[in-house]
Amino acid sequence: MSMDNQVKFGAVDLAVLVVYLVGVVAFGLYMGWRQRQRSRTGEGYFLAGHSLSWFTIGLALFSTNISALHLVSLAQQGYINGLVYGNFEWMAAFTLIVLAFFFAPFYIKTRVPTLPDFLERRYGRGCRDFLAVISILNAIFLHIGFSLYAGALILHALFGINVWVSVITITALTGLYAAVGGLTAVVMTESVGTVVLLAGSFLITLFGVIKCGGLGETWRLIGEAGKHFPAATTSVLRPAGDPSGMPWFAMMLGYPVISIWYWCADQTIVQRVLGAKSENDARNGALFAGFIKILPVFVFVLPGLIYLGLTYQNPVTKTDEVYATMIQDLLPLGLRGVIAAALLAALMGPISGSLNSMATLFSYDLYRRVRPQASERETIHVGRIATLFGIVLAIVWTPLVANFKTIFDGIAMLLCFIAPPVSAVFFWGVFWKGASYRGALATLWGGFVICLTTFLLFYAPMDWAKSLGCAGWLDLLTWFDDCVVKAYYINYMVMSFVLFVICSVILHAVSRTHPDAPSAEREALTWAHPFDALKGEAWPGIGNYRVLAGVLFATMVALYVIFR
């Protein structure tokens, strides 16, 4: 992004930015200090003493999910492809219903500190070790490393802030309250960040509509723009061959696979649910997050499409500059600081959450295996050291990210190839009593090898092959893209579903040939019938999770009908 397109700040904007940064760190430290006065146990530090309410859980789930890259890339996708990429936000609501109904009750009843711990109780120790290592690497290198570098680049592009100043400052300040305050500090600051993030993003939508001349004129301009840019429409369900490259069946097949891993089995996300003070808080917190996930389409994606309606006669040629150009054109001085604060919130939320989750995984799943006699105080101390180590490792890893021009697209695809084995093991683990330890272990290891090989051979970004000078690899990637992906619409989302089916076949085949001995504990972690999830104790009235889930489901169906 050129320096000419950097957002100009006024004194009020800078004041808002500084106040937010100082305020959120101070608030995080204070909330951590309060929790420390109440409890000095590992449960208090890593799981907020099981004190989190549904409201806090919902806000924190949303904040951990949204990074600075979301804000910029979704606006860019809105400008190029309309609302179709909003599916990644809206379809999450359905998975959060699955989390609330089928996974959260088991997590709360067993009071597990980590999801690898749950996997050990359902299957065995080997599954716990596999998931613990994968989850720690995922937290450090994907959730922290790539989010941090992407956010730093965005802050530099928008506001001219030096990349390394951003990396070191944001990581140090975020790590400070995450290490000192534990999950309580992380969740409370994430809750504040969610409000700031949504408020700042709403301003862009609001001023975009105002500049168009009202809602009616906004939709007219979007319609006019669609005549010149066929992919840029309000439809979220696209046919095969659509210019966006994301047909409806790819989303319907692939997204559930990714989202079961991400929303139901990723420690970085689900740790907020593990800290719930009751089963109903856990369930309703997940459902509340589902309601919040309705908003990103209107405050992250739609602004890009609105801006296309305003500029289609003289479109932005460098679409990665859409977000900065929108802020510059639509928002007056005095409000741009709110957007900067929103970007900081989108940066600090995922980083703090990932640091805390990584520390929890290291302390409980690795350190306590070596020292099972470790005291609560020692475990917390190790967790803080792990947090600091994660900070250093993420900073050291950051320069390597810059070696690949298309790293972000590559990582987005890579996630589709990490998810299938983990999703299969968790999904069948709670719905099929016959899923055995050997079957799960074979699925995790065998599925991981199959998925990674498929990604590297057929779906890796071509720039990776070019940068390594591998002509044969580049030829294979080019052939597969032309003859399979484009010809038969088998993009990485569809392939993720195919790999999930393969992993499921492995799990069923090995489990049937190598069944586990009967175990009451394992059977207690599997639903005898899916409808049993409806029989749990619920709060009265509107707080009943069954009522909330029904309203959320009906709302999402209505939105898909309207924007189909």
* CATH topology heading of the domain at 3-353: Sodium/glucose cotransporter
Helix content: over 70%
Number of strands: 0
What pattern of helices and strands is seen along the backbone? HHHHHHHHHHHHHHHHHHHHHHH
Q: Using the alpha-carbon principal axes, give the shape.
A: globular
Low-pLDDT segments = none
In what range is the share of β-strand residues?
under 5%
This entry's quaternary arrangement is: single chain
Structural class: mainly alpha
Tally of alpha and pi helices: 23
CATH class of the domain at 3-353: Mainly Alpha
- Mean pLDDT across residues: 90
User: What is the alpha-carbon Rg in Å?
Assistant: 23 Å
In CATH terms, what is the architecture of the domain at 3-353?
A: Up-down Bundle
Task: Walk me through what this model shows.
The structure is a single chain. The chain has helices at residues 11-38, 42-46, 54-65, 68-81, 87-110, 115-122, 125-159, 163-212, 215-228, 248-264, 267-274, 279-292, 296-311, 322-330, 336-370, 376-401, 407-431, 437-459, 462-468, 471-488, 492-513, 520-523, 545-562. The protein has a domain at 3-353: Up-down Bundle (Sodium/glucose cotransporter). Helix 5 runs parallel beside helix 10 (248-264) and helix 7 runs antiparallel to helix 15. The chain is mainly alpha-helical and 564 residues long.
